[in-house]
Amino acid sequence: MSRDKGKHTVIGFRVERAGPLALLQDAGRFGVRRLGVTQGGPADLHGWAWANSLAGNPWGAAALEVTFGGLTLVAERDLTLAVAGADLGVTLEGEPLPMWQRVTCREGQRLVFTAPVNGLRAYLAVAGGFVAEPVLGSVACVVREGLGGFDGRGSRLAEGDRLTVGEPRGIDGPTEAPEALRPDYRAPARLALLPGAQISDFTGQSLFQAFNSAWRVDDRADRMGVRLTGPRLQCRIGSLVSEGIGLGAVQVPPDGQPIALLNDRQTIGGYPRLGALTPLAASRLAQCLPGQEVRLVAGSSEQALAALRRFHGQLAQG
Q: In what order do the strands lie in the sheet with 162-166?
């Protein structure tokens, strides 16, 4: 992972201790689902985008997605960086690192992600972005498919890896995110859902329960999808001819417990669907720990588009 990526790249970090899951993620891998290749990209679009913006990077720059913590990085040079998303108890040289703002890390200093305090996934962005060789147009790391990441083979970080970064351009833009835009991931989440083609095939009682009951995040949750536990939903059709699966699709298998599909989802599926979470709702769900309460809220495509436009506007304004 330490091979040179070009004359404008340098080694930014050395991995002293590898956590359970730290993956390189750019905006994702698009235009390849017809090949059976999934999207990848940041599970929490909000945290990833803010980390990059604060580090002075353009949209799409690669950042490190750190899940659960347990990761120690040693800076190989002076770096400008930002950490957004979940609070994983991150420290710099033993002192708490300010979250959601631009920070300077000096050569030889240790950046340590410990354990979840608020949320599940943190995003580390460095000025200039992390650099790796694209695979099918993206460096997004998908372990299940063996694609992307620093080695191109979908590997999670391991002890001794050396992480390449690009030379930063002039850094401008916001130095910290507004307090109002820093989520409290411990609070019950309200997840906007766009009703899908099969929603009328669910019983009336099931539809009432779907949108008026509290759901719990099951411990069977990863970057592929999150299972929700609660009332048993019933659908008049048991299965369908497999069709394409988009980000946030909420499938309901025969056990009646919904599964919200995330970035590393399969590309096709045959279970009936309530609909799809909006991109920002899928991001919010990706920060929920097992046992947390969530609620589904029916929405419209117009509302979802307006929310996404506000999100991009807030990034631009800082």
A: 95-96, 91-92, 110-113, 71-75, 9-17, 162-166
pLDDT-derived band at 260 (thresholds 50, 70, 90) equals very high
Measured between alpha carbons, how far is 118 from 126 in angstroms, rounded to an integer? 22
Kindly report the backbone phi and psi dihedral angles of residue 176, in degrees, each rounded to the nearest multiple of 5, phi listed first: -155, 155
Measure the CA angle with vertex 64, ends 223 and 80; round to 5°: 155
Task: Record the pTM.
Answer: 0.95
Tokens standing for residue 10: 């340098």
